[in-house]
Amino acid sequence: MLALSAGCVSDGTLLEENAAVALRSARFQARQDLDCPGAVVNVLSEKEVPGAPWGYLYSDYRIRAEGCGSTAFYDVECRDESLCDVKRVQP
Question: Would 30 disulfide with which of 63, 65, 77, 83, CB 3.0-4.6 Å?
Fold first, then answer.
């Protein structure tokens, strides 16, 4: 018998769990990109995204960073509370 599990997290739970690490990851990247240790970040949008067939659900955040007279935008995808991918994007 074969049993498959796809991590049944829903109702915003995944978004809540991953929000802090998404913000930390974006802040770290923004401080480097903007050359600004005081850069601040905030979430503009968030959504849960199902992976490809049989893939894991992940959370996606659009984050704005500001500091030292500059602004940057990031798309942050998190599979769990320890694994996020940060990409700088156009507004």
Answer: 65
